[in-house]
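Dear all,

This email documents one entry for the complex benchmark we are building for the journal club exercise. For each entry we list the sequence lines for every component of the assembly. Then comes the predicted three-dimensional structure of the complex as a token string, followed by one or two observations. Please use this as the template for your own entries, and keep the labels exactly as they appear.
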Amino acid sequence: MLLFFYPLLLAGVIALVIDQSFEVFVLPKRTDLDNSFKVERLLGETDPKEIPVFGSSKGRSSFIPDSLGETVFNYSMQKCNFDVIFFLLETELAKDKDAPIIIEFNARSFVHRPQHTIDLATFMPIKNNPSVVEYLAANDRLDNFQLVPGVRYYGSYVRYIRSLNRKETPNKIINRGGLFIDYYPGDRLLRRFTDSRYKMIEKREELETRAASGKPLTYMEDQMLDQLQISLDFAYNKDRIKKFEDMVKSHPNRDILMVFTPHHPSELAGLKNREKLYELMDHWNEDIPNLYAFDYSDFPLPDSCFKNSSHINLEGARRFCAVLNDDLAHLLN
Amino acid sequence: MVDFYAGLQIGKTPERRKKKWYFLMSLFVNLGFLFYFKYFHFFTENTSLILSRYNIFTDFTYYDILLPVGISFYTFQTLSYTIDVYHGKTEPETHLGYFALYVAYFPQLVAGPIERSYRLLPQLKREPNVITKDVKYAVNKILLGFFKKLVVADTVSQYVDAIYANVDGTTGTQLYWAAFLFPVQLFADFSGYTDIAIGSARLMGVKLMENFKKPLWQENHISYWANWHISLTSWIRDYIFIPLSNYNRSPGALMLWTIFILVLIGVWHGANWTFIVFGVVNGCIIVIQRILRKTSLVKAIRSNSITYQIMKYFNLNLLLLEAVYFRSVDLEMAHKVQWKIITEFNLNFHEILSLYKDEFVSAIGVSLLLWLTVFFKPDLKFKYNWAYVVTMLIIIVLLGQNLENQFIYFQF
């Protein structure tokens, strides 16, 4: 069996060299747009005045830190919902400070599917962060190989290298964790995006009707319906909501500002249980003193303020933040 | 158990009628299971639909049937045993343990290659004799399989899945590239599994058949199907096409048999109209290409290396348009994708990169790497074979995706 001992040994040595080179040369070049950079920053940040913004890519493209205050940092990340925000919030609430926390939330915020929503690359490098290791393990998202030098970045190398390309350009503004694009796809392309959403709504209706009539769906149709329901409806997950409320209540000194950011009308068209969303926001505003909900879902923005049917562009973010700043001024200062 | 018993009885009994009875019993049970688990819903749904047109309304009970993994593979494998025993090509297996091992041999149980009893059973009975060369071959093959699956298929799938999930929001050009990359994904995924299966079996001293030989870059569909999923196509050729063509060899009948077996291959994959149309279209194209290949025009194209390569590219484009049926949920979606490709395709590079740019670039990059493996095949006599092993390991660690995606053919 010595036949493969030397090749394996050599491969192991090369992997370790690559691993070390990666840590020394690549990781330090991450920008404040990189998810893992944000997680590390949050874990190490001790400024008592910093106001963190947590959220998904919608949050990343909606909250301009410069517009909201000098101490605001946008920790929003792509695909980030409460599966990840719980960890960020726990970390932030454990700090000895009184600054408010802004959280972008949307219809999918309370979807609980750790396998899909907790992106492991977000939490790299994890070796020096026991709390991260513990959190991933608790959510069954820790692969043992991630603790083994040489292979711990398996599946993530390309993403890290890609993230190095994210540099500011004349139409791409990076501002303390936020990313704002000065781009409008044009009427034709935007209509294509919105039509696609309306087709999704139609498809969902069709599949739901078939399923309700007792006819079985194929495996792929079943998966599709599941996906469509998650994409279109408000995920009213009682357990997740209660967990969040308990965390907020246990830290009465921290104001939590929940902001439902501007959405394109096509994105809300398929939202069947919108009343649940309003009920929840009313409940937060009325029953939990340090929890404030702001609804900008119908914020009037023309199509030219959208980058696509899910995200606003730089102009949209500017208009939104101008109003948001006025509305939140009394809570932020 | 039924096949084991049927095989024994067919071997024992001298009476032709009784042999036939046991043979038919085996066929009925095997195909019955396959029909029930895989095609029952499709059959009842379409029967109801047809009858309703004649104002006959049925009320079939729908069962939530869980499809056993790999049922199409091992059903065909056991069927080949019974057919071979019936035709006297192989001796019935008398040891239940060996027969069970043949049917459920783990490396190829869920996704093939579909092995014949006369090839696999003798190897399973033999004392394993694994030499250094076997181990080298096996490790190279397994690494190649992991490379194909983890690096190529799982990277390409990210682009293909994203585009197919948003057919209405994407352009014909973007759909063309997704359709172009899907056969690459399918090939890397399926042949990757086969390589791992072949390598694993070789570590135990068992040689499984090759299932793929550069199928995508072929001059016509005839050679494509001769090089794609060989264990299935050769099964259908030996057990269905040849008996049918022996029955009637007229040109018209041969065309009909060709279309029929391609439909059968389509239906083997699943109970959906997309697979049936996939088979019909493939069959028709093979018939047309058979007629055309004898013409002077095609002979002239083949005689020039440049036009010959263009011919292969044209064939690849036909294949990718047909593969749209394979990837789509239903016919409506498939036709929408094909229509958009045909009417909207252009060479605007900006348009291709305007959506899922990173995924597209990565998919093209790993596809080129896959293409390179054709030139850098492991040579067992090569003194520095270890360099191949080390390179593969490093590429897998660096470029592999941690997506936990299942193999596509597990669903069949």
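Observations: The CA atoms of residues 148 and 285 of chain A lie 47 Å apart. Chain A is about 50% helix and 10% strand.
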